[in-house]
Amino acid sequence: MPSICAFRSVVYYGNLSTRINQYTFCNLDNEVDSVEGVVNIDSKGRKSVANVCKEPCAIEKGMRLIGGKWKGSLIYHLKDGPVRFNDLARLLGGASKKMVDQRLKELEAEGMVIRKVISDRPIAVSYELTEFGRTALKILDDLRVWSESHKL
After folding, report:
1. Do 111 and 66 fall within a single domain?
2. Under a CB-based contact definition with an 8 Å cutoff, are residues 24 and 9 in contact?
3. 21 is in which domain, residue-wise?
4. Could you tell me if 23 and 35 are in contact, meaning their C-beta atoms sit under 8 angstroms apart?
5. Whole-model pTM?
């Protein structure tokens, strides 16, 4: 049986207190699979899901790395070389310094960026992409082109 991934969407009917979770199953080629015995419907029409894969699919794993709020923008702003923290915070405009700091720490923990201390007093740090982080630039550039071509 091929690896599958379940995408959940929540559908609201009438008032917002009634909702039904709908699941779509796809293999790694993004083709929708019909998997027997996965969606169970009880006598009252309620659905439950059984036998869902325990591991997220490749797309979900990738989105966890670069899909967080401000992460893609941070990676894209680091494409030309090292950038100091305050400059990154200014480039992102709507993000607080705390948010920028949190996202940079996450990217550093994931091996996407390197933090370099420039001076101790006053503290000055710069960030730059690792080789692994540079591999995400193609994806982000494709996303930029797609967004511009559809006038999003």
Report:
1. yes
2. yes
3. 4-55
4. no
5. 0.65
